[in-house]
Design goal:
Number of domains: 3
Number of helices: 7
Oligomer: single chain
Length: 233
Amino acid sequence: MALPKLNTQTFELNVPSTDEKVKYRPFLVREEKILLQSQEGEQKEVFNALSDVVKACTFDKVDIERLPSFDIEYMFLKIRSKSVGEKVKLNLAFPGDEKVKVPTDVDLTKVEVEVGDNHTNKFDLTDTVSVVMQYPTMKTFVDRNYTKLTADDAVALTVSCINQIMDGVETYEARDLSKKELTEFVENLTQNQFAKIQEFFASMPKLSHTVTLTHPKTKKKGKVVLEGMQSFF
């Protein structure tokens, strides 16, 4: 006699980069086990586990390989809020008095993806040459550890995120160019041109939430901005 299968409640979210509606469910015991096991490994294992859980909990309806990393992080946060609890307790340093930690409940349902001011994905390098960028995917970070960017890492990340290079009326698709060609293009940029492109990464969408803290002794108020998924755990 077959054991009964339990029905799991489903929810709906909007994918930040596309505004597409996607149904999702809380993660199950088997998926929580994957997450816990990945925490004992390297960053690559954590990213892979994160992607696998999001894919499973959205019923394989999202293309994990192509979605920007902030989409995956946002979806995981929403899935986690329905799986474990909508609030997490964090000990946050009070601004200006880092030794003082303030216990704070953060409501994950209120965390959104925010975009930097004047964010753009197109950069004019000269009067005739422009570059169009695309957001890094989770796979981009899995393939290479970008926690602390070296000069080589910055070049590699830029190369992996070029979508098009336009020269006058000519448009070159990055997918039609070799990695060597793209690397040579980036390495031949001036410092100012390269810095201009780096603004794409600095201002790109990210998980963000502002928390107001109360100093336990002075009762002064201070605001802390939490950015990126790791800030919420």
